[in-house]
């Protein structure tokens, strides 16, 4: 099998974590007899500097033609003054829309070694294993009208039943494969879109008799997420709530740098990225945590290449690195980005076998 992966390293720490992710991708692919062709393209601030737009047509065409896309991060102080379609984030939003990746999976697990590192009480976070399924191509991020003048600005939250159904279907299905619990998060006591959201998800529940569904309002859910996170299995929610809640859930895992994501559509390439942050203050210093980017490669093998065993091997390799104390600064250690990436590569079964390690 031969696959094409387009990388969009982007800005800030994006390039340095992507280098490590690509190294893991290559070794893991070789061990599974997959030929991988990696092609790098511009996005975000770098694309603005070099091509005058945050999502050059070339990058978009390459991404659409790929089997999977691996993204680093976009944005930074240098481009903060830009507005509207010139914003670095607009490149990412344009890419998500063009690839029609409407379901964004953000799994959150707490490694036992990092339990003591989180700012929350260990008994609250120990054993957390949840997935946020964020709707990614609708809602406030894309709704029209959307404009701004000197004194007024308008954003619109719009959802159709079909848009809600397709992302809810991903979440229900995931719940059947996991612990059978789905929490749908909305603001149905205020928003019309949330009324439709709740009604649509409720109606679908009959099709999934093994899933127990409950609904939560986003404000109290935000509290629940950090007070009783172990209750949660799969969480499904609209674009903006999912953005906020997934950063909040990163607190459970110990660092934003730990969390991977997969953005999937009905067909076409999946988009894989750490859940975000360009961390400009440490960019270029070889200090960023590459594990979120590397775990995104695991998701790439699972969802785009249908190789769950390779995915599991990468996840196990990251776990063993953490077990062995290979920790970057954000998770309480002093390992460099490149040392952490090299440690994952060394812990992959292919490398261990080559080195004669048998257990
Ligand atoms: C994320 C990020 C993006 C988003 C930004 C960079 C546009 O915060 O992937 O969560 O809001 O979706
Ligand atoms: Mg975000």
TrEMBL record:
GO terms for biological process: L-leucine biosynthetic process. It is an enzyme of class 1 (oxidoreductase). Binds 1 Mg(2+) or Mn(2+) ion per subunit. The keyword Secreted does not apply. Coiled coil: none annotated. InterPro entries: IsoCit/isopropylmalate_DH_CS, IsoPropMal-DH-like_dom, Isopropylmalate_DH. Residues 4-344 form the Isopropylmalate dehydrogenase-like domain. The record marks 141, 187 as: Important for catalysis. Its cofactor is Mg(2+); Mn(2+). Substrate binds at residues 96, 106, 134, 219. It is found in: Cytoplasm. It holds the Pfam family Iso_dh. The keyword RNA-binding does not apply. Homodimer. Catalyzes the oxidation of 3-carboxy-2-hydroxy-4-methylpentanoate (3-isopropylmalate) to 3-carboxy-4-methyl-2-oxopentanoate. The product decarboxylates to 4-methyl-2 oxopentanoate. Belongs to the isocitrate and isopropylmalate dehydrogenases family. LeuB type 1 subfamily. This is 3-isopropylmalate dehydrogenase. It comes from Candidatus Aeolococcus gillhamiae. The lineage of its organism: Bacteria, Bacillati, Candidatus Dormiibacterota, Candidatus Dormibacteria, Candidatus Aeolococcales.
